[in-house]
Amino acid sequence: MGNMLDQFKLTDKVAWITGASYGLGLAYATAYADVGAKIVFNDINQELVDRGMKEYEKLGIKAYGAVCDVTNEEQVNKFVADVEKEVGSIDILVNNAGIIKRIPMVEMKLSEWNAVINVDLTGPFICSKAVLPGMIKKGYGKIINACSMMSEFGRETVSAYAAAKGGLKMLTRNICSEYGQYNIQCNAIGPGYIATPQTQPLREKQADGSMHPFDRFIRSKTPAQRWGHTEDLMGLAVFLASPASDFINGQVVYIDGGISAYIGQDPSNLDESKFKDEDVQKI
Ligand code: NAP
Ligand code: GCO
């Protein structure tokens, strides 16, 4: 068995994290670099790619970054071909890129619905389809999808996002079913409520300086009574990308501070003096 820690190493593995200029994607990439992976990332425009490159340089990480819209199959196929030439065949894909639109369903335009479904569900289809042939040829691969509380629960105003993330849970199971025979594992990370730019609007202080109602609500639904930080997810990201999880397939692993196990308490019971302002991200 050798040294157990070797089970969690990604030495020389090529890891592509989509939409990883900041937020959770940056955290996943940082964790992967720390255990030896070669980092590859894309984002929606050059400004974001440049921002990401600066972040990786600051962290001492040599990353390959390029513009690629995950909803554009031509761009994705070119990105994968360029990576294979410049860095090597992709061993690990994290379908992290995502958007959310918080609009009551009856007010949501079809174009807004389609935008969310395209990025959050069709994007992972396109990117996974692009990397699977190489993984099948090698007889090795890890695909990790960004699921969500909304893969299991609904809530007001996030119909498109919940439909996409619910679909992504089933896409995870289907990739497992079709390609597990080639030693390819497809699992998903299911974060709870994490302090990133995407959830910033739900945590902003009110004009009178009081807590955002949703901030109080989500803390009353979380046994840990706090928002997650990007660092909280790094260990699970490494685990699902490493040999330690080679016999885990088709699973969504929820990392949510206990939300999905807890009925919640009356928000007015919470002692606000215990709460710290949640940083958007520490790294
Ligand atoms: P984020 O801060 O909004 O970052 C998402 C990244 O994806 C951004 O860099 C974004 O670029 C990029 N992106 C958006 N559309 C893209 C496209 N078409 N092609 C390529 N890149 C694109 O989100 P996050 O909070 O880090 O979350 C990352 C993933 O985890 C998302 O899939 C999200 O749904 C999921 N998640 C987040 C939470 C949470 O609480 N934060 C919880 C559960 C699941 P732009 O700046 O242009 O948008
Ligand atoms: C929302 C939030 C959530 C989080 C995350 C929870 O509006 O409810 O944005 O959807 O982003 O997906 O797991």
Provide structural commentary.
The mean pLDDT is 96. Helix 3 (73-86) packs parallel to helix 4 (110-138) and helix 4 (110-138) packs parallel to helix 5. The chain is globular and about 55 Å long. The chain has a single domain (4-196, 227-263), classed as Rossmann fold (3-Layer(aba) Sandwich). The chain has helices spanning 23-34, 46-58, 73-86, 110-138, 159-179, 213-220, 234-241, and strands at 14-18, 38-43, 63-67, 92-95, 141-146, 184-191, 252-255. It is of the alpha/beta class. Strands 3-2-1-4-5-6-7 form a seven-stranded parallel beta sheet, sandwiched between helices. NADP nicotinamide-adenine-dinucleotide phosphate binds next to helix 1, strand 2 and helix 4. D-gluconic acid (GCO) binds at residues 100, 102, 148-150, 155, 158, 161, 191-193, 198-199, 202.
Top keywords for this entry?
single chain, alpha/beta, Rossmann fold, binds D-gluconic acid
The CATH homology group name: NAD(P)-binding Rossmann-like Domain
Helical percent range? 25-40%
User: Beta-strand level of the residues, as a percent range?
Assistant: 5-15%
Distance between the termini: 34 Å
Category from helices, strands and their pairing: alpha/beta
Small-molecule binders: NADP nicotinamide-adenine-dinucleotide phosphate, D-gluconic acid
Tell me how many strands there are: 7
The first-level CATH class name: Alpha Beta
* Biggest β-sheet strands, sense, barrel: 7 strands, parallel
